[in-house]
Design goal:
single chain, alpha/beta, Glutamine Phosphoribosylpyrophosphate, subunit 1, domain 1, 2 domains, six-stranded antiparallel sheet, 27 helices, 16 strands
């Protein structure tokens, strides 16, 4: 059984696999070799075998921590960062996690105490799932490893389903499988002789300070330079994802400044489309003299096989259609390098999304009588639909519908898909859990609109959608993706900045733009944000239509036993006849059904036995 679990994660670590078994624990590890290729095999032991670690990730300050631990009397047998994490735990126990700077998930066994400790990095870059069943603790980097245990039930969590339909993702600690949880970012879990205890070692604190913009940009310059220099450390080939947008271009600029070798860049193009970014990333590749690679993602591709594969590697379904280009970008990148740097996280820490502007504008819109807003929405719904990725008519309809909701619900709605009313129309067996609960579960949520929703998105949207999507699609191809913006020192620094340094008027990521104003070409600073996504509305009417009709046809929907076939058919009819753009609605339902089919997930409508509460510990 342990060997099957290891094999299920082979894509995450094709270079080395190992096991450790004793009377009370079985640990398996797979390794993608990046630091110390000759040493560092896992699981790794210390103190005559009393401590054993299975580790996934990178510790960027491992060299300085090694020196500190050597001064305290520790002796190392490898040059691997995994051994640094293990010996730090031997020295400082759970307090060691605050010393680690990087992305990681780990399991550490202490034999003489009959004790296991699980830990996850501060921002939730690396995944970690766990379940308790019949007095045992099961855990792994992906659900599929836990599924290898024959006693683990595969029953859909209808509480989590409500979140999935509302948000496009499932927030921690929930998963779509009842009884299996995600370990929250910045947290640890201890199992000692059958008793579980949990704790939090990091939580970002929003406390804006009085600082000038010049001082802020100078500090950010130092932090980014240091972070990117550390993220470039690798004993294997490394590249950079370059979209031609502000965030990835900033990464490329700083990487070029500190790298002693010629950089490789990787991009996705959409030839002939309005949202194609190729002219931007080609210009940057030329400017920084990179070895450039790009893949054109056009509707002529046979996408069906890739989407079916994604149902396996996604672990949980991704209702974020941006997973498709990330899949192809990862596949191309992995043919050339083992590690890639990306710009994930900048939007959530510096305020890069249009939703933050919508939050502000909605506060003004709500001063108008609700009947007037409803009339405006009704008029907007009469506008002809567009095939564009995110068209103006789609934005207008979405904004007005959100403005009619309470402010917290509206913020989730703008990033999500199904409203509560739309979910009820699907015939879901349980009403969706109020999204307000997610905000209520967070301590010290700031009062100002911008920082409030940056705080919310850093806890939910960032780890459970953006990083989840990037991590699953990249590791499916044995590619490690590193996000330098999510160095926790940068995240903490951003939380201390005034809201006006993030959103100024209609300008997003104001402080970041000021920092790179003299570093990047003006057209990069002036261009609108596109985001790596697909034209879901169009493709589901075109090349993906056969897969859509096969997966969400009456027979398949009845077999799944989750939604009303008539309700699903109504969505299909309205979208395919161009009465409405429901591409994102249908994409979420499509990937959900493909995932349930692939993993044999049962849609029981009975009472859930392990109802979770979204708390922070």
């Amino acid at each position: 059984m342990l060997n099957r679990a290891i094999q299920s994660l082979h894509h995450r670590g094709p270079n080395q696999q190992g096991v450790h078994e004793s009377n009370n624990v079985s640990l398996g590890a797979v390794r993608l070799k990046i630091i110390d290729l000759a040493g560092g095999d896992q699981p790794m032991h210390a103190e005559n075998g009393n401590y054993t670690i299975a580790f996934n990730g990178e510790i960027y300050n491992h060299a300085e921590l090694r020196r500190e631990l050597e001064a305290l009397g520790h002796r190392f047998e490898s040059h691997c960062d995994t051994e640094v994490a293990l010996r730090a735990f031997v020295q400082w126990d759970t307090a060691s996690f605050q010393h680690l700077r990087g992305m990681f998930a780990a399991a550490i066994w202490q034999e003489n105490e009959n004790r296991l400790v699980l830990v996850r990095d501060r921002l939730g870059i690396k995944p970690l799932y766990y379940a308790t069943h019949n007095g045992h603790l099961h855990f792994g980097s992906e659900l599929k490893a836990i599924f290898e245990h024959p006693d683990i039930p595969r029953q859909l969590s209808h509480t989590a389903l409500g979140f999935y339909l509302s948000l496009n993702y499932v927030p921690s600690p929930f998963t779509l499988v009842e009884g299996i949880q995600k370990l929250a970012p910045g947290s640890w879990l201890e199992w000692r002789s059958g008793t579980i205890q949990t704790g939090t070692y990091w939580r970002n604190q929003f406390s804006p300070k009085d600082i000038s913009l010049d001082e802020a940009t100078a500090n950010l310059d130092q932090l980014l330079s240091k972070s990117i220099e550390e993220h470039l450390i690798s004993d294997v080939p490394l590249g950079i994802w370059a979209s031609g947008g502000l965030d990835s271009s900033t990464i490329l600029h700083y990487a070029a400044a500190v790298s002693s070798r010629k950089l490789e860049t990787f991009s996705i193009s959409f030839a002939g489309r309005q949202f194609d970014e190729s002219r931007y990333f080609r210009a940057l590749a030329k400017r920084y003299n990179t070895i450039h690679h790009e893949f054109d993602l056009s509707s002529d591709l046979d996408l069906t096989d890739a989407i079916r594969e994604m149902a396996y590697y996604s672990d949980e379904p991704s209702a974020d259609a941006g997973a498709v280009p990330v899949w192809f970008l990862s596949r191309m990148t992995a043919r050339h390098v083992t590690v890639a740097l990306s710009g994930e996280g900048a939007d959530e820490i510096f305020g890069g999304y249009q939703t933050y502007l919508a939050d502000r504008y909605a506060a003004i819109a709500r001063r108008f009588p609700a009947p007037l807003l409803r009339f405006g929405l009704q008029a907007a719904n009469a506008l002809p639909v567009s095939d564009e990725k995110i068209s103006l008519e789609y934005k207008i309809k979405r904004f007005l519908a959100g403005a009619l909701l309470p402010r917290d619900e509206a913020h989730f709605y703008w990033n999500g898909t199904f409203s509560a009313a739309e979910q009820r129309a699907l015939g879901t067996p349980q009403a969706p859990k109020p999204l307000q609960d997610l905000c209520d579960a967070l301590p010290n949520v700031p009062d100002d609109v911008i920082n409030r929703y940056l705080f919310v998105d850093q806890h939910y949207y960032l780890p459970d959608d953006i990083l989840y999507k990037c991590g699953r699609m990249s590791m499916a191809h044995s590619l490690e993706v590193r996000p330098p913006f999510l160095d926790h020192r940068i995240v903490e620094f951003a939380a201390r900045l005034p809201a006006s340094f993030k959103i100024k008027g209609r300008t997003t990521k104001h402080v970041l733009r000021e920092l790179v104003r003299q570093k990047l070409p003006p057209e990069i600073l002036a261009r609108p944000k596109e985001g790596l996504d697909i034209p879901a509305h169009e493709w589901l009417r075109g090349p993906l239509r056969p897969l859509l009709l096969e997966t969400l046809g009456e027979k398949s929907v009845k077999q799944a036993g989750l939604f009303s076939p008539a309700a699903i058919q109504s969505l299909l009819d309205r979208h395919l006849s161009r009465q409405a753009n429901l591409g994102y609605h249908l994409w979420g339902l499509l990937t959900l059904h493909l995932w349930m089919q692939r993993w044999g997930i049962q849609a029981s409508v009975g009472e859930e036995t392990n109802r979770l509460v979204p708390t922070f510990i």
